[in-house]
Amino acid sequence: MRAEISTLFGLDIYSDKGLYVGKVDDVELDLNEQKIIGIAARKLNPSLFDQNGVIIPFRWVVAIGDIILMRQVAKHFKKPAEKKNKDEGT
Fold it and tell me: Bridge-partner residues for 10, per DSSP?
């Protein structure tokens, strides 16, 4: 999968289940390996995130086109209150 890095900025990010995750704000690069290692996302889905931005590991990306499709978002990102409730068994 090859593309100009600048074409990624502003793309919407969705999970493989069709859930909106956020919008690409920046990319994290490994210059020695010449590859993308993460995607910085902003304008996040408030039902998933409390913070203003996150870095999504590039290995979670399934496809890039008009949008970025990633896998397993709900499993990796939950609001702290949801994690706490799950840990307490409620």
Answer: none
Domain boundaries, the chain: 5-88
Token readout for 11 is 């793309």
Which residue, 13, 9, 22, 90, is CA-closest to 53? 22
Whole-angstrom distance, CA of residue 37 vs CA of residue 56: 9
| Of 55, 54, 71, nearest in space to 17 by CA | 71
Residues 43-89 have pLDDT tens digits of 999 888 888 899 999 999 999 999 999 987 655 565 555 555 555 55
| pTM, rounded to two decimals | 0.75
Decide: 24 and 8 in contact? Cβ < 8 Å.
yes
The CATH architecture annotation of domain 5-88 reads Roll (2.30)
